[in-house]
Design a protein that fits this description.
The longest helix has 35 residues, at 171-205. The protein has two domains: 6-95, Rna Polymerase Sigma Factor, Chain: A (Orthogonal Bundle); 106-205, no CATH class. It has helices at 6-15, 23-45, 48-64, 75-95, 106-109, 120-137, 140-151, 156-163, 171-205. The chain is an all-alpha fold. It contains nine helices and no strands. The relative contact order is 0.08.
């Protein structure tokens, strides 16, 4: 059993139809990966009991969707994606009822106001511009914190723990510095657009 790869264990499990006869193969996969999945859940949640529940839920999801696994990918990668998505979704759901819940989306955080957009297409275009400004103006750490907080909607204390930030303010410090840089970037971008518009009108009037 231990000589089989993860992917071979999955194949054996499928051959048994996921029935009790296939349990040894599922048990072997569980034993190989439970500690790593549980640690990931703990790093994200910060709560050992909750992490244990999350890990159990991750494996339950994995078994329920094992038919979706494709042998051209590593089982560990596939399992990690399930763990990541499940943990993030669970934390976001819990965070919505706390003071750490996200109150603004990434466009509003960068100084854009979606309510003033004329169409969904315009919102999409502005989101692209916002992401470009982030890429040009921020450090990799600032971009990651902004993406996790405003994109994944993770609470700041969770991001601090996930990224191993030991500075007193944690992820909040990166949010503050990122917003300061982006405020300047947005102002410069707006000025360029206004100058371009004025230039276009002048040429048209001539």
């Amino acid at each position: 059993m231990t000589s089989l790869s993860d992917e071979e264990l999955v194949a054996k499990y499928r051959e048994m139809g996921g029935k009790p006869r296939g349990t040894p193969f599922a048990d072997e996969l569980f034993q190989r990966h439970y500690a790593r999945v549980s640690l990931w859940c703990y790093r994200v949640s910060g709560d050992r009991d909750w992490a244990s529940d999350l890990a159990q839920e991750v494996f339950a999801k994995a078994w329920a969707h094992l038919d979706h696994f494709r042998a051209d990918a590593k089982f560990s990668t596939w399992l990690f994606m399930i763990a990541r998505n499940h943990c993030f979704n669970s934390i976001k759901s819990r965070a919505r009822s706390t003071e750490d819940a996200v109150e603004v989306n990434v466009l509003e955080a960068l100084g854009f106001h979606p309510a003033g957009f004329d169409s969904a297409l315009e919102q999409t275009q502005m989101a692209g511009i916002a992401m470009e400004l982030m890429a040009k103006s921020l450090t990799p750490e600032e971009s990651q914190v902004m993406s996790l907080h405003f994109g994944e909607e993770l609470p700041l204390h969770t991001i601090s723990r996930l990224m191993g930030l030991e500075n007193p303010s944690g992820a909040k410090a990166f949010i503050v510095s990122a917003k300061r840089k982006l405020k300047v970037a947005v102002e410069r971008w707006t000025e360029r657009i206004e100058r371009s518009a004025k230039g276009g009108r002048s040429e048209h009037e001539q």
